[in-house]
Amino acid sequence: VGGRIVVPGAALFEVLRAAGESAWERAVELANVSLERPVTLPATVQIQVDGEEVRLWTREGDTWLLHATAGLLEQAAFSAAPAVPALPELSLEAVHQRFAAAGLRYGPAFRGLVRLTGAPGVAVGDLAETVAAAGAALAPATLDAAFQASIGASTEGPALPFAIGTYRVRSGSRPARVVVSGGDVRLLDAA
Question: Which of 146, 149, 151, 182 is a good FRET partner for 98, with 20 to 30 A between their CA atoms?
Fold first, then answer.
């Protein structure tokens, strides 16, 4: 981003979730996630779990900078998958051109959308199998592809999330599709 190597915000979500699960020794979800500033590399990182909150910091010289915070909750039950609407096809190349115009350049590992349909307020994206099959509870590239799909739901310029109400991952999931509707981003497993 802007010529700097930036850790994808999606990776920070997974780091915060994994730290919470490690501390709580059970499945957690993140609430009120806030990305305060990007993490640029190289970086010295510290993750702090304090009761029901997790924070990610980096050090610059003698100063620790806060980058991300989230509340920790016991993981709630998952609801049924939403119906997937039929929508007009969108150009993935045009989406990536819009990101590039905003200074966001994605390498091959972070181009996980293989198809995108959408209309104002709603988008449906199909995820590449290599992205969906990555080894983490949810590979950052998979979540990032879901965030990229949200551009299909927007008539404005690219807007990546800096805050999310709830981040919940089902253990062992292998997302193959993303549905974005009304600010809600749902990753659906392969049928």
Answer: 182
pLDDT tens column, 115-153? 999 888 888 999 987 654 444 678 888 888 888 888 766
Question: C-alpha distances in angstroms, 17 versus 14, 52, 70, 72, 137?
Answer: 5, 12, 9, 8, 9
Other CB atoms within 10 A of residue 45 CB: 14
Instruction: Tell me the CA distances in angstroms from 57 to 19, 80, 82, 163, 176, one per residue in order.
Output: 13, 36, 36, 17, 32
Alpha helices per DSSP H over the chain: 9-24, 92-101, 129-132, 140-149
In whole angstroms, what is the distance from residue 57 CA to residue 138 CA?
Answer: 22
pLDDT digits (tens, 9 = 90+) for 8-48: 888 899 899 999 999 999 999 999 999 999 999 999 999 99
Give the residue carrying structure tokens 């497993």. Answer: 189
Q: Which residue has the tokens 């045009």?
A: 94
One-letter amino acid at 146 equals A
Calculate the CA dihedral of residues 178, 183, 184, 189 and round it to 10 degrees.
0
Residue holding tokens 């998958």?
81
Q: Are 180 and 187 in contact (CB under 8 A)?
A: no
